[in-house]
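> @MW can you paste both from yesterday?
MW: sure, first one:
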Amino acid sequence: MNDSPAHADAPVLDVWCELQCPDCRSALDDLRALRARYGDRLELRLRHFPLEKHKHAFAAAQAAEEAAEQGRGWEYVEAVLGRVEELDRRGEPFLVEVARELGLDAEEFDTALVDGRHILIVDADQAEGQAIGVTGTPTYVIGGERLDGGKSQEGLRERVSEIADRLLAGRD
């Protein structure tokens, strides 16, 4: 999912995430800081990796894709991640409620969750993640390097910044 335009030659930071994951919620501050620091010089892409232990994660990934289609993907992701306990308790009705709170077309969200129009995107992300060795969330991939944030967020923002700075310097 990517709803923010980046320069065509911007380095890409793939963030393998799931919206019912407390560790991904912890990573939000790092992601906000990276977006603030690099703006459109770094393409930040949310990649879906719903874990089986979280029963609403697959639906949440589909909902995030619907939010992106409606132009508010990152805002939706941040709103849901900020309330993972509520997602745990309430499931799909909560996902539709968040869409309504953000002024998105909630009926379209409900329909998208029923008709499964975004399942292929979520499945493709998950398959790609498995193929490159993603086992948990969040996991970051930038410049061909995989950084596992599920074990610890400590130092990850700095490591991503080092790699991004190196990639950007190589383009000048």
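MW: second:
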Amino acid sequence: MTTTTTTARTHAVVESPYGPLTLVSTDGVLSGLYMSGQRHRPAEETFGERVTADEGPFPEVVRQLTAYFAGERTGFDLPLRLEGTAFQRSVWDQLVRIPYGQTWSYGELAARLGKPNASRAVGLANGRNPIGIIVPCHRVIGASGSMTGYGGGVDRKVRLLAFESGKEPAVGAPEALF
């Protein structure tokens, strides 16, 4: 006898200072945060039914994102469902350890994983991060300090890092995401 597991997926789209963000929920837990034009963004039809941002897990996600963009929050406290390989999940687990306003190089991240020669693999896993901003893959840079690839676009990466370092103003209105 074969049993199949079905998952319920929903999504909502909210505005941000970096363009529209698509929030995806799998079985009531945040499993995706994608920017428009993002590299490795799954097909829209995989996001499930579109709902409003005040349904499912989305109100708390929006509340924390709003506080982040207003400069009132430096980290997130949300249940996440990160779907990927064991290696990808280990990389994403390290990403949330990068302090707000700081950066690590791909090599530094690889060394922290105990795989000092895996900076390329770390970069590939970083690029597949399904929950951008909240799992801060934008905080990883090239060894020389260069702004190498970012799934949401290098311009957004530069802006997010400038924002976190205080060089770009926070969005003051708490309603910024609505």
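> thanks! The longest helix spans residues 58-69.
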